[in-house]
Amino acid sequence: MTPKRITGVLSPVVTPFKADLSPNAEQFVRQCRWLLSQNVGLAVFGTNSEANSLSTDEKIELLDRLIAAGVDPARMMPGTGCCALTDSVRLTRHAVKLGCGGVLMLPPFYYKGVSDDGLFRSFAEVVERVGDAGLRVYLYHIPPVSNVPITLTLVERLLKAYPGVIAGAKDSSGNWNNTKAMLDQFAAAGFDVFPGAETFLLAGMRHGGAGCISATANVNPAAIARLYDSWRAPDADAQQKRLDEIRGTFAKYPMIPALKAAVAHWSGVAEWATVRPPLVPLTREQASALVSDLQQRGFDMPGLRG
Amino acid sequence: MTPKRITGVLSPVVTPFKADLSPNAEQFVRQCRWLLSQNVGLAVFGTNSEANSLSTDEKIELLDRLIAAGVDPARMMPGTGCCALTDSVRLTRHAVKLGCGGVLMLPPFYYKGVSDDGLFRSFAEVVERVGDAGLRVYLYHIPPVSNVPITLTLVERLLKAYPGVIAGAKDSSGNWNNTKAMLDQFAAAGFDVFPGAETFLLAGMRHGGAGCISATANVNPAAIARLYDSWRAPDADAQQKRLDEIRGTFAKYPMIPALKAAVAHWSGVAEWATVRPPLVPLTREQASALVSDLQQRGFDMPGLRG
Asked: What angle do CA A252, A258, A260 make, to 5 degrees?
């Protein structure tokens, strides 16, 4: 059986917290359902999910709750790359067991200046210990945050060692030249490249990309998914421009608190603004300014208010 | 009861792994006993312990094994700062329950460019959730690796909010001016500053430092501890020079694999050379060159070979 590959637009789903900073699983399920209704897949436990502020137990619990609620695992690409090999193996194995369409894997990110040999061995150990032909690994290249890059040479080595299992990458370098190099070198081999923001969605699609995985797919999902569906349409460039404007409005603030402020406003659930430390929420003034700016641009999150 | 504060020289104890990369608890206990016999305390789960390549469960198990073996918790300062608040709280709570003399706390290190407000809140949440007057927190400033600095302003704020509980810092910035500023501003208030290498042991002691916590205390413990004990002696500068030479020999190689190669050689236990990915062991040639260079300098690890 060759399951259908995940493609399209995915959201690194923001994680809702209660006042005591514990994850709110019911709210999380509701949010995932809404995103699916907007034609956007679920890259839960990404950078914008504050995934690295959650323990492995908390991630497993949230994943189990999504499955228990009937959310389709084929639409899920949970982040499973942790600092500790044992955590990455445990979380990846769990995701595969649940039938997740893929996993998005950060390199171990504490130790800096590590070699490609060491990173190859990190990914290889996870792949071999999980040992499941259904595993689909998407390599997560986000040097501005992880400070541990995934080089083109490393991709090449991994693809050669584990063809089929190494299924693609999310490129959050913000560097189109790197995304284009990934596409040029590996897309033909069935390696699915997702730019890490809709900024490069259209450019990516024109060069054989698979979609995008973007922070702002949390707040502007339908419009981003529409460009994915209609990237050959005459208005594609105009759509891209409009997406960039909305993203630019969020980018005036720290991204994760800004996403959560917007979700809090348009859902009517104030608790959504809660972030785990080391992040801090937007101030009341910042949140008002963001919402007001978005409203002036005709932005809305239809269907979010339960 | 005011327990005696941890001072002197501590080792971020290297963690032994079996061939399957699981921690070797028996070997770990032996190593900790040997270090104590050399007059060096146990900063287990530090950077050089590959602590961030271990899961929280693995760290708790190793700590329990030390206690079960009768190793004195008052000599332990385990690293308990993780990316996830819930992991930091769980591990810190466990260390305090076991009676550890202190905990060495990294800031959450995935998200970069976070504010002092967010970092203050991170540490404050751990302190308040653990809620034990016996807690002694040593702040771990290691910007070359964590990329998340602990500023002097943050130290000041934390000391003011949690006097007594915020007990000191390990400064692994490698920047003497920063260590000196910490000493000048906070040592008088009972804040114990440990330079993150013996390079600044003598300078630190002359400015009111509390000792040092150093990678090379894994391999050269007695000599480093001797300088701590005799820093006012006439030969202190000569001692410092000799320590710097030995450290310099290790520093020609990636530090953690080099420490483990030396322990493997002088203990006669080859398995000690094992590291978890993303690290890679020294090559056979590198290990031979290191050992040969050390032997030419008259280096030894007396009492290590069981």
From this structure: 170
